[in-house]
Write a structure and sequence with these properties.
CATH architecture of the largest domain: 3-Layer(aba) Sandwich
CATH superfamily of the largest domain: Succinyl-CoA synthetase domains
Number of strands: 17
Distance between the termini: 35 Å
Structural class: alpha+beta
Strand content: 25-35%
Radius of gyration: 25 Å
Bound molecules: guanosine-5'-diphosphate, manganese (II) ion
Length: 376
Amino acid sequence: MKIHEYQAQELLRAYNIPINDYRLASNAREAREVSTAWKRVVVKAQVLSGGRGRAGGVKVANSPEEVEAKAKAVLGLKIGGYPVSKVIVCDFVRIEKEYYLGLILDRSRQGVTLMLTDQGGIDIEELAESNPEAIHKITLRSDIDEEILDAFLAESISSKELRKQAISTTKSLYSLFLEKDASLVEINPYALTSEGKMLALDAKMVFDDNALYKHPEIESLRNPEESSDDEAEAKAKGLSFVSLDGNIGCMVNGAGLAMATLDLIKYHGGRAANFLDVGGSSNPQKAVDALEIILRNNRIKAILVNIFGGITRCNDIANGLLMARKKLNIDVPLVIRLVGTNEEEGRTILREAELDSIHDLDDAIKAVVKAARGSS
Ligand code: GDP
Ligand code: MN
C-alpha cells in the first residue's frame, strides 16, 4: 500500500525525523489561505505517484495570488494516471545539496538495503541506470552499528556534523521501516539547507499489504484511488485481482498458476489484461463474479480460464461457467483449460453445453493468444 507525501511526512515527524512544515489544501483558495504563514512557498501535488516535479506538480510561489494561481494549475493536473485532488503548501527551503536516502526490502540480499547518494533530487531509477556507482548501498540485517553506519555515510557526506544528523535520521527511518512493515521508504530530496540542516523534503513509502492487519494506524491511511474500482470490487468478493494493460482476460485458480499463466501468455506473444486468482474454494458463484469483473474491461478480446483442480473441483467451475454464460453477455472467445479434481465431470458438463475444453496448458495459451489476435 502506498501513501501520500503528506501522510509519509507525518510518520517521519512521529519518528523525530526533521521535515519541512506543510499545510494541506484541497482547493486553490484554501491553498492561498494556508500559505500566509510564509513569504515564499512551494505548492506540491499529492498523488500516489513519483515524478511530480517533472510533471509540473511542484511549483514555487512568491505571493498569495501566485499561490492561488499555481495551486489551481497543479489541481488541474493528472500525474501518473491520478488526478490531483490535494496539494500541500510548504515553506520554500534554500537547498545547498540534494541527497537521496532510501531503505528497501531487498530479498536478493536478505535484508534491508540502505541507499544513499549525493546526487538526489532526480529519479533514482534514472541515476541507477546512468551512473549506478553513485548510489552507495549497504544491507542491514539487525541493529545498526553506529561506526559502520558513519563510515558508510562518509562516502557521501563529508561533514561530521551533517553525518550526525544523518545517523539519527537513518536510525529512525530504519526503526520506522521495521516497526511498520514497510517495503520501501525514500527521502528524496534529503536536503542540506543553507542553514546547515538535513531535512526530509519529500517522502515516499510503501507498506507490505500482508502485514497491514498488524498496523491499523497505517491501514487507516489507505487512499481509495490506489485500487481501481474493479480491484476494490474483486477484493470485496474474495478474489485476488490486479488490472494489467493487455487484452486477454485471465481467470485462474491459485496465485502461482496465475503468475505462470501470465508468463506463458507473454511468452507466446500475447498480453494479459489482468491477474485473477479465484482462490482455492469451489463455489461456482466465484466463476460468475470473476468473469463479470473481467468482462467489464472493454479492451478484452479473449478470455482464458485456467483451472488446475485440487480443492477446486472442475465440475463446480464448469457449472459456474454455465451460470456465467446465462447471466453475462460473453461476447469474446472463451478458452477453457480444465484439469484435476473431477476433470471428467467438468468436461462432460461443458461438452453437453457445447463448450470445448483443452487439457494441455501450452495448447490453451496458444489458442487464447490466437483468438485475441483474430478478433482484434
Ligand atoms: P517529486 O518530483 O515527486 O520527487 O517531488 P519533490 O517533492 O521531490 O520535488 C521535486 C524537486 O523540487 C526537488 O527535488 C527539489 O529540487 C525541488 N524542490 C521541492 N521543494 C523545494 C524547496 O522547498 N526548495 C527548493 N529550492 N527546491 C525544492
Ligand atoms: Mn522527490
